[in-house]
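(Fold this chain)
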Amino acid sequence: MRIYPHLSAEHLANVYTVVDEDGNALIVDPAHIDRELLAVIEERCSHLSAVLLTHRHETHAEGLGTLLKIYQGVKVYSASDEIMGIPSIRLSDGARFRVGRMDIEAISVPGHSMDSLVYRIDAALFTGDTLMAGTIGSTKSVIEKELLMRSIRAKLLHLPDNCLIYPGHGSLSKIRLEMMFNQDLLASGMAIIGT
C-alpha cells in the first residue's frame, strides 16, 4: 500500500490518495480537486474505487461532487446516508470493509463533529479533524470537548504506538508521539511521558 498526501491550498486541508498493490485506489477527504491531485490519481492509480469521508465539513468534502463527475462508479463511505446531497454508504463504529486489497476499519470518534470517523488501514490512521499533530479537533462546547477526549482515549490511544496519524490538517504524527507531546492530551492527563 502506498499513500500520497496532497495539501489542498483552498482550505489548507490534507487529501490522501491510498493505492494498493494492484493500483486500486481510494481518496480520503477530497477537500478540493485541482490538477496536481488529478495528476496523482491518473499517474499512480489504475482504478479509483472509493472515497472515505472523515466527517461532513465542507473543508474536507467540497471536491466530492467534482471527483464523482470525473470518475464513475466510485463508492462514497461516511457516517451519514448522504454528504452534500450525494448518497453515501453509512458506516457504524467498528464497521469493516474492503477496497481492492485494503482492509479498512471505521472507528467512530465523535466530538469535533458527531459524524467523525477515523479510518484504519494497516498501521495508518486517517483522523480528519479528530486528532492532529500536537492537538485535537476544535469543539463548540465543553461537553463536546469532553466527548472528543473520551472518544480518543477509548478508541485511539490503545492502538499500537507506531500507528501513523494522517490528519486532516498539519503534519503526520504517530500515536506514541501524541501520547508524549500532544498538549490537549497532556492537559487532560491522558498522555504519558516517557518512552
